[in-house]
Amino acid sequence: MQTPLIDDLISALRVLPGVGAKSAQRMAYYLLERDRKGALRLSGALQEAMDKVGHCEQCRTFSETDFCPICASSKRNQNEICVVESPSDIAVIEQSGIFRGTYFVLMGKLSPIDGIGPDEIGLPLLELRLQQQDCSELIIATNPSVEGEATAHYLQQMAKNYQIKVSRLAQGIPLGGELEYLDSGTLTQAFISRREV
Amino acid sequence: MQTPLIDDLISALRVLPGVGAKSAQRMAYYLLERDRKGALRLSGALQEAMDKVGHCEQCRTFSETDFCPICASSKRNQNEICVVESPSDIAVIEQSGIFRGTYFVLMGKLSPIDGIGPDEIGLPLLELRLQQQDCSELIIATNPSVEGEATAHYLQQMAKNYQIKVSRLAQGIPLGGELEYLDSGTLTQAFISRREV
Asked: Which HAMAP family does the UniProt entry name for this protein (chains A, B) (predicted)?
């Protein structure tokens, strides 16, 4: 017995990932009751972002300018390319501060069963960059899932065609992880990749 | 190293209750990547709702019309008034289908320490209704918190001035609850309010 506009708002809030009927209702009432200004700000930000945010012409991450801040920065090493699946992967790598090169965002991963081939994840653009740029290293940071591994393998082959050094992020025991709770796949990888010290 | 528009969107998403930095980022990327249409719909729904949703003139719940659908309905018993703290309480009572009267929404509860007195929770409006309408019963459904109890007590006194029957929702063991996990306050109430069978 809610009014149509409130119903609309509740159902619209459900487009957000992880928001079900109950949380959507809670959010709608919260905004109406306590933060109408914030809600209008959110409305504006959504509109602006959806209208203006496109993709970086070099790395395919989200950007409202032709080149994203990382690709446009003179402080970043343009010859090291780290390939990730999604823009949120960039965020987490940037947070660590370990990498000073540039990225290439696949916006997905190879998945022939879903009709996602090399073209869909922008590999022609990456290949063009490998041809034209003096690339020193291609760091593959796809997720360790089945499709991620397949994508990594494909990228590896591609880079080898251009005699470019390829590397992958190490797999093993996470910092602060306990052996007791580790899955056997990770433990197997940690054994295989063990280092002499 | 996100672009300003994406940063704006992420920080704007944090107005939603229960959404922190990490979820806001996940939501922003999700919308940009997979549901721009849904995001624009959400933007529109927010704008519409914040602009047009006000309060019902009779019961103070959210409504874009002068009277909310419940107050305007001829099928509802206008002489039974259930007093609740917030519009979401109406939603949960309506879901149960047990109540066919009308509501009065306090939009808060008495809390002198925060400067919330009878005027702030609309009690003059309720008093006017008790005076003018032929009210048969006032059902108090405030939450069983300290402020909720104080509010209930105040309402009780008010209704008694007009010789109106007052009742409160029963407190006790919830359906499907187990004694073992019950807090002692609830258990005490359940003992005090025990019924002969």
From this structure: RecR
Q: Is A132 helix (H, G, I), strand (E, B) or coil?
A: helix
Alpha-carbon separation of residue A163 from A83, A138, A166, B151 (angstroms):
17, 11, 9, 77
pLDDT band at A101 (very low <50, low <70, confident <90, very high): very high
Under DSSP, the state recorded for B107 is: S
- Helix axes B21-34 and A87-96, enclosed angle (nearest 10): 150
Q: Domains plus CATH for chain B?
A: 4-52 (1.10.8.420), 68-168 (3.40.1360.10)
Q: List Cα–Cα distances, A105 to A81, A120, A141, B121, in angstroms.
A: 10, 12, 10, 53
When CB atoms are compared, the residue of B2, B50, B52 closest to A40 is B50
pLDDT tens for each residue of B72-131: 999 999 999 999 999 989 988 998 889 999 999 999 999 989 999 999 999 999 999 999
CB-CB neighbors (< 8 A) of B35 in chain A:
15
- B146-150 contacts: CB < 8 A, separation 24 or more? B147/B109, B147/B110, B147/B111, B148/B85, B148/B109, B150/B109, B150/B110
Q: What is the mean pLDDT of residues B12-26?
A: 93
Instruction: Please identify which residue in the block is written with the tokens 């509860």.
Output: B109
Residues of A in contact with B13 (CB under 8 A): 42, 45
In 3-state terms, what secondary structure has residue A168? Answer: strand
Structure tokens at B124: 């003059």
- DSSP H helical segments within chain A, as ranges? 4-13, 21-34, 36-52, 69-72, 87-96, 123-132, 146-161, 184-192
Please tell me the distance from the alpha carbon of residue A78 to that of residue B74, in angstroms, as a whole number: 71
Q: What are phi and psi of A86, to 5 degrees?
A: -145, 160
Instruction: Check CB contact under 8 Å for A45 and B86.
Output: no
Q: Judge whether B82 and B141 are in contact, CB under 8 Å.
A: yes
C-alpha distances out from residue A145 to A148, A176, A185, A186, B174, Å: 5, 22, 11, 12, 45
- Does the structure's ipTM exceed the value 0.90? no
Characterize the bridge pairing of strands B62-63 and B54-55: antiparallel
Question: Which residue of B7, B10, B50 is the best one to mutate when testing the A interface, meaning the one whose CB has the most A CBs within 10 A?
Answer: B50
Q: Over range A38-63, report the average pLDDT.
A: 95
Of B162, B159, B189, the residue nearest B82 (C-alpha) = B159
Which residue type is seen at B156?
A: Q
